[in-house]
Write a structure and sequence with these properties.
Keywords: FAD, Flavoprotein, Oxidoreductase, Transit peptide. The protein is of the alpha+beta class. It is built from 11 helices and 9 strands. The longest helix has 35 residues.
Length: 396
């Protein structure tokens, strides 16, 4: 039987993972990569340095025009893309900057996903088409100043007043909060945790922006303050009660992070690989020294193992067989390895590694936030520990 001709070794795809992708997968990837190259990469270092995302509403509309917002959802103007295609989009967005991927993740995997899965027909018709188009930005209020990893202890309360609901409380570290037109807010009620669709122009709602960040600087991060926010009865998400609601949304967003972290890692690896071929010391490119080659080899191994893992989880999500513990596996591994790749890339770039002329330090500092949000290292270790042993150690 004749053998197919072997393709030449590709330093940017050493395992030939592109062979796993369909033509449609590649088209989605190239669309998002091209948009990021045109609209984000020329500006993001300046945005990061100034600690702002000045064109966020325009960027959201553009992301909507290429089908990147709520792209895994069906109907209501959403693209109905596969999980793998959504993951590829997250990878390309985070290769530009984690803040841009966070904008898309919170819009689609948290706010839109919550309304799409748990909302009423009226809520879906009102909000999802404009959110898919990027005309309305959404945010997701779960984390509180005193309750992050343990959302069951949330202090935000919703009480009935006649046929209305009245919400009081605070949410913290909310991406998109200050620019959102709608917030999905989770609050404790007499019957358990409920989700509420809150127009941000409701009296008593405010979203002061959080400043002085050294991570995710090209991203809008806010506090949500709910001071007697009165909502009609139909503001509550009718199809879920309890923490199952917000946790299922978080699981969807974590899946995107599994891919996105590899985008930041890829950007840092490629910067280091190019630099190693150009930078000369002792009369030769530093890429010719054994220690540098060892670093590049280790980085490539972890990068492409992580992408392979992400693709495997995407196929399981598309097949309907993906478990939350498997998402924890991916989030724990890929973010942790992505940070290590960034740190190793920084050593190859030497002093230039801390300059915003290169993406490495920006990715490294962004990933410190990605490591924490959507479940800390410790939380995902305990999720896996419980799955492996059958013993719940969260409160032990």
């Amino acid at each position: 039987m004749p053998h197919a001709a072997k393709a030449p070794f590709d330093p940017h795809d050493p395992l030939g993972l592109d062979d796993l992708l369909t033509a449609e997968d590649r088209a989605v990837r190239e669309t998002v990569r091209g948009w990021a190259a045109d609209r984000v990469l020329p500006h993001v270092a300046g945005w990061y340095e100034r600690g702002e995302l000045p064109e966020v509403r325009e960027l959201a509309r553009e992301l909507g025009s290429i089908g990147a917002l709520g792209m895994q959802l069906d109907g209501y103007g959403c693209a109905g893309a596969s999980a793998v295609q959504y993951g590829l989009a997250c990878l390309e967005l985070e290769a530009a900057d984690s803040g841009i991927r966070s904008l898309v993740s919170v819009q689609g995997s948290l706010a839109m996903y919550a309304v799409h899965r748990f909302g009423s027909d009226a809520q879906k018709e009102r909000w999802l088409p404009s959110m898919a188009a990027g005309e309305v930005i959404g945010c997701f209020g779960l984390t509180e100043p005193d309750h992050g990893s343990d959302p069951a202890g949330m202090r935000t309360r919703a009480v009935r007043d006649g046929s209305d609901w009245v919400l009081d409380g605070r949410k913290m570290w909310i991406t998109n909060g200050s620019v959102a037109g709608v917030a999905v807010v989770w609050a404790a009620t007499e019957e358990g945790v409920r989700g509420f669709v809150v127009p941000t122009d409701a009296p008593g709602f405010s979203a002061p922006e959080i400043r002085h960040k050294w991570s995710l600087r090209a991203s809008v991060t806010s506090e949500l303050v709910l001071d007697g926010v009165r909502l009609p009865a139909d503001a509550v998400l009718p199809e879920v009660t309890g923490l199952r609601g917000p946790l299922s949304c978080l699981n969807h967003a974590r899946y995107g992070i599994v891919w996105g972290a590899m985008g930041a890692a890829r950007s840092s690896f490629e910067a280091a690989l190019a630099y190693a071929g150009e930078r000369e010391q002792f009369g030769r490119p530093i890429g010719g020294f054994q220690l540098t080659q060892a670093k590049l080899a280790d980085m490539a191994v972890e990068l492409h193992k992580g992408i392979l893992l992400a693709h495997h989880l995407g196929q399981r999500m598309d097949a309907g067989t993906l478990r939350p513990e498997q998402v924890s596996f991916g989030k724990l591994n890929n973010v942790r390895e992505a940070i290590e790749i960034c740190r190793t890339a920084r050593t190859i770039l030497g002093a230039n590694g801390i300059s915003l002329e290169y993406p490495v330090m920006r990715h490294a500092t962004n990933l410190e936030s990605v490591l924490t949000y959507e479940g800390t290292v410790e939380m995902h270790q305990l999720v896996l520990g419980k799955a492996l042993t059958g013993i719940d150690a969260f409160r032990g």
